[in-house]
Amino acid sequence: MDMVTLVLGSPRGRFFCANVAYACSADDRAADYNRPRAPADVLEVIEGVDVRAVSELSERDILEALAFATDFARYWQPPDEEDIWFARQDVLTALRPIASAVLECPLTRWWSDPVDLANQRMVAHRISGVEWPESTTPYRSTDAALGRWREHVLEGESRFRQ
Predict the structure, then answer these.
(1) Angle 89-104/39-47 helices, nearest 10 degrees?
(2) Preceding omega of 138 cis (within 30 degrees of 0)
């Protein structure tokens, strides 16, 4: 299965592609963070996008479209209205060139590269100057003893009980 089909096969992927389309749209119904309010409007706005505009988006624009899509992930709830609209066959057909363009964009080409497991990072908000530093994974080195790990976990749980 090709990557475009995989992206459009998921609610968040369709939402992401619609966000990209809205970011590229000159239609007032999708301007200044407005979103079309009816299925017919959704289709018209997406079909009206010049696909060449996708390659002109900045990395920030693309990441904002992705963040907006993932921020609304609620897998424990039924799909919302937009998720249902984006799953319609006519809308899927309109989203396909958007998905293709965004995945071919130089800013996103690396998304399908293999994961570099040796270069992963964990970033967490600091609670204090000592706790939760940014670190490379694995979070605990492979030579850390299970007893030491258990001690660390129990200390943390004790702190949170207080």
Answers:
(1) 40
(2) yes
Which residue in 36, 3, 2, 4 sits closest to 19, CA to CA?
A: 36
Exposure string over 58-68, b if 16+ CB within 10 A, otherwise e: eeebbeebbeb
Q: What is the pLDDT along the chain (162 residues), one digit of tens a residue?
A: 799 999 999 999 999 999 999 999 999 988 877 899 999 999 999 999 999 999 999 999 999 999 999 988 888 888 889 999 999 999 999 999 999 999 999 999 888 888 887 777 665 555 555 554 544 444 545 555 667 777 888 888 888 887
| C-beta atoms surrounding 118 within 10 Å | 7
> Structure tokens of 155?
């200390």
Cα gap 67→44, rounded to integer Å: 24
Chain-centre distance of CA 65, in angstroms? 7
Q: Is the Cβ–Cβ distance between 65 and 20 less than 8 Å?
A: yes
Looking at residue 44, its amino acid is E
